[in-house]
């Protein structure tokens, strides 16, 4: 059974934080689905991931395109994860069900700490997941480094 990790982004934007988490997930041997809410935003994120550091390569693709099932990291707006992901990362308020968290090795919720709507959505999601019996951790970068601030 997995756990939900909540990442409160306050110092670095999504396009800088997500590649770091994806690299760690791939190093752990996980296949990842990144679930968002807007196809245009996922295309933007896809372009940002391709523009990463020159010394790294982050293999990924967009759902609905050729070879989606082969992608170690798949960007999607759908609930389905055709790449057989065992790690789900949600962005931009995309939701995940408690059943998903419990079935996955890891689930991550990345949210913009400078957007009060995003903070409220993350709090609601924390409550829903923990009430359903999911283990959860809350991580903040407010001090300049990632620190675990809460666990349930």
Task: List its salient traits.
32% helix, alpha/beta, globular, Rossmann fold
Describe this structure in words.
The protein has helices at about 15-25, 40-50, 100-105, 115-130; strands spanning about 5-10, 30-35, 60, 75, 85-90, 105-110, 135-140, 145-150. By secondary structure, it is of the alpha/beta class. It has one domain (about 5-150): DNA polymerase III subunit chi (Rossmann fold). α3 links the parallel β5 (about 85-90) and β6. It is globular. The two termini are about 15 Å apart.
Radius of gyration using CA atoms only: 14 Å
Averaged pLDDT: 94
Strand content: 25-35%
Q: Unreliable stretches, pLDDT < 50, 5 or more residues? A: none
Biggest sheet character: 8 strands, mixed
Sequence of secondary-structure elements: EHEHEEEHEHEE
CATH class: Alpha Beta
What is the level-2 CATH architecture name?
Answer: 3-Layer(aba) Sandwich
Strand order of the largest sheet: 3-4-2-5-6-1-7-8
Q: How many domain modules?
A: 1
Instruction: Report the strand count.
Output: 8
Q: CATH superfamily membership, which one?
A: DNA polymerase III subunit chi
Task: Predict the CATH topology.
Answer: Rossmann fold
Shape, per Cα inertia axes: globular
């Amino acid at each position: 059974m997995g756990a939900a990790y909540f990442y409160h982004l306050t110092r670095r934007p999504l396009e800088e934080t997500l590649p770091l988490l994806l690299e760690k997930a791939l190093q752990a041997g996980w296949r990842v689905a990144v679930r968002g809410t807007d196809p245009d935003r996922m295309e933007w994120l896809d372009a940002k991931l391709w523009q990463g550091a020159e010394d790294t390569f982050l293999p990924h693709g967009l759902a609905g395109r050729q070879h989606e099932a082969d992608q170690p990291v798949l960007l999607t707006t759908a609930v389905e994860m055709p790449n057989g992901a065992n790690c789900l990362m949600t962005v931009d308020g995309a939701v995940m069900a408690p059943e998903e968290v419990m079935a996955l090795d890891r689930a991550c919720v990345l949210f913009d700490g400078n957007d009060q709507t995003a903070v409220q959505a993350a709090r609601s999601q924390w409550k829903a997941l923990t009430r359903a019996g999911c283990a959860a951790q809350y991580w903040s970068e407010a001090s300049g480094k990632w620190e675990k601030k809460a666990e349930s």
